[in-house]
Amino acid sequence: MQKKLILISGSPCVGKTVVGDRLFESYDNSAYLDGDWCWCVHPFSVTDRRLRNGDKSMSFILSNYLDSDFEYVFFTSVVLTDPGIREGILNGITAKDYQVIGFTLTCSEETLKERHDKRGDKGETNYYWLHLPPCSEDIVIDTDHKRIGDIVKEMMQHINRS
Asked: 3-state class of 83 per DSSP?
């Protein structure tokens, strides 16, 4: 079986982390990387050019997972919504012989605000990431009015078909 690198992108509060975690738990011989782990800095600013160093860390970790013969590697990150950053991370992976499957999770502004408020984030809900177009190869999953288990099942059908 060819190894699979599953990318999960989308706006903050759209459900990437919980879905990625559930998918990871659903597949044996799998590994999981939440991109937030690689650029957890204080103070945080999306315009801080040093965050691109975190992208190098992501490439390195993903390479290690793929070279360690995990069949499924799940990677969640908001930065995957930017085609240039995504390309840089993928180009930095040194592993060979794996398939990339990309997902973009989305929802309505109302749902995003509800999730943002429920999570307890300070400040106003930011809709910037929500309105970015998905990468051209991504499978888009609308998470509105869906339970996490239903979203995971829908994604598993795509993963298992690939």
From this structure: helix
